[in-house]
Amino acid sequence: MTETQTAPEAEGEGLNWLEMIAALLLGVAGILTAYAAYNGALAGGDALKGYTQSSRTNSDANGYYNDYASIYNGDQALFTQYQLLVEAGNQDTADVLKDNLFRPELAAATDAWLEIPEGEGPLTPLDTDAYTVEQLDTADALAAQAQIEFEEAALIDDQGDNFDLASVYLAVALFFAGIATLFKVRNIQIAMLVFAILMVGPGLWFIAKGKGWS
Questions:
Q1: Which residues contact 58 (CB under 8 A, 6 or more apart)?
Q2: Model's pTM, two decimal places?
Q3: Residues 39-48: what's their mean pLDDT?
């Protein structure tokens, strides 16, 4: 009779131990799942803000590019008229046009271009380094900034994806840890708990990857 009573007690102690492990796994996996979900939500919001900011900056850059195109076309038209007057022998009229209608940047570029020996320089002052349009420099700077903002948002978005993957693995761990104690066969319980533990590992790894720790 003593041996018959000892076996159930040992078995009961084994089951309680497994239940403790299952409860611990449920707690750890639950906390990690909440942590991953929270950080994933934060990353998603930050990524959206970054994409939005990049779009706005890029839109500003396009506006400056349009301003540059308008200014360039206007300068080109004025210089063409100036050159036609010069070639027609109306130098005085051409000078009046340059002095009164040329932008300072175009006038300076034209003066520098006129000093270049004929046939050795660009066809127009608009093709020289002396010709500048501030809007073009601003547009280039904004376009570069928009690209940086987009890349930063994409990086945050990737981090959010890692947190989402962590949540998936941890949810699987929660499932198997939760159903482990429902089985009466000890070997099945152990197998379920082992699988749950194995799922926690990738969950932790993806959390670390999302935080930039790996």
A1: 142, 143, 146
A2: 0.75
A3: 95
